[in-house]
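Q: Trace token order:
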Amino acid sequence: METQESLVSWKRIVIKVGSALIAPNQNGCSSHYLLGIAQFVVRCKAMGIEVVLVSSGSVAAGAHLFNAQEENTKPSIAVKKAMAAAGQMEMMATWDRLFDFPTAQILVTHGDLRDRERYVSIKETIFSLLENGILPILNENDTVTTDKLKVGDNDNLSAMVAAAADADTLIICSDVDGLYDSNPHENPDAKLIASVPDITDEIFSMAGGATSAVGTGGMKTKIQAAEKAVAHGIDTYVVNGFTVQTFNTLLNGKNPGTHFSPDKKPMNDHLHWMTHTSTAQGELVVENDFNAELDGDSEQLTSSEIIAVNGDFAVGDTILVRKDDGTRLAKAKSNYSSCLLSFITEQDDQDFANKFQDTTGPIISDSNIALLEDE
């Protein structure tokens, strides 16, 4: 007889749980739906599968403690940050009660993830926790994040975490069974898409807006997250997190929702980070007829080929290289600051510019560049 252990081959998984599961009534945390997820985590760990949890819900969990919620008024940003601070404690306490093994809290911002040194630090922390049998629970640090520093939704955050954790599987919990060809809340004849071998514009067109009154992520952000994850070679599932049967089905080696197949040639970690996690702090604009193979010999990108330097960036920041018509060519680590690049490109004496670059080195390096498919 086939044993349960042989039905799944996961080694390390990331599970994303949304606000609607954490605080379905916006009256503090509830274990009603979380118990089934916790049991799934326990069963996975018993099978030797390492688990990382990405949990939304701090704002929803803390909302009931504030007058703005009681008066049914829209809270200010400052109050929402305070809700997150209070709710994060309640949310972590709820998760901790559901497990008989230790848990750890990791709060991050996109500013942490897009900085390579801090990104590596997060990776190392996750690995150390897993090695010691501790369940990492990650959430965006809503209390301190700003528009410039936030990911904005934990679907995309979970994909970034899955890549950082070197997970082989990402499970994103939703309030529907998966991706449908139309909104199942509005169309009773909507059909579930069980398998997505490639994420195309047609797949994105099937995604509507957010269906939950509590969370910020809709199906579109889940597909965006799947796109990030599969590029790293990670099997990705969007499933219904409100039913226990979902998790029984997964452990039986079957697909209860929508499965997004991993790319056959996944990106290595550094290029994936640059493409899908790091944010361009500025851009270099080149002529429309620029045709150098940037990943083959980036020294071909000289100051004479740059017609504009946009943004304010420092040495080591990620930048976008694009054509004047808007075609995106690559994201890369800049070896020059925007101030210095602007000075060089504005020189009338091209010999001076060339000698300067010969002395100081290439503008971008082959080892720190990710080619892009224009969107």
